[in-house]
Amino acid sequence: MAPHPRLHAVRAVAGFSLGTLLLSACSTDSLLERGLSQIEGVDDVEIDRESGSFAIRGEEGEVFDVEVDEGTGTSTITTEEGTVTTGGIDELPSEVAEVFTPPPAFQPQAVTDLTEDGTRGLMVQGTIEGDWAELMDSIEAAVTAGSWDEVQRQTMLEGVMAAVVATTEGEPGSTLTVSLMMDEDETEGLLSILLVEPTTE
Questions:
Q1: SS3 at position 19
Q2: Structure confidence by residue, pLDDT tens digits, 11-35
Q3: What pTM was computed for the model?
Q4: Cα–Cα dist 75/32, whole Å
Q5: d(C-alpha 3, C-alpha 119), whole Å
Q6: How far apart are alpha carbons 90 and 6 in whole angstroms?
Q7: Hey, is 190 helix, strand or coil?
């Protein structure tokens, strides 16, 4: 159930903004590193807590710098192709709300919007509280209720990190990825919702 190749770059760049909340909220460095390491192509993560920034090195040597501005509540990701800015929100964008209803304990805090090669990636991130297993079951049920052609649950580490990935047929089709991460034995974590769709002319 691999997404169309053109979606990989959008998902990867959007995925880098995952660290914004992990860096500025209550999460630990270990959780930040664990989350970023799940992004395809990431080789190393360097965190600078004092400056509120971090850098990600890819497997081919490319470096992505992420600067967090706590004053404005935004972060800027710099890549060879340009920059992507993530801003704060307090409710789901309508495009995401149409395809997924998160658990009630979810509090959206940031959104990243980028377009690349005919696809649009919209990622929403925020904190969530509850039992990890119960939240994952709720997330899977909510995704399955949508009009997707295929839904798959992927567990990276039981009780810590998992995702539900839904796709529609087509080249490229639409993809919804909902990821939950928590530190072990904690009840507060990060929920990340990534919707990738073909752009319309």
A1: helix
A2: 444 444 444 444 444 344 555 555 5
A3: 0.69
A4: 15
A5: 12
A6: 30
A7: strand
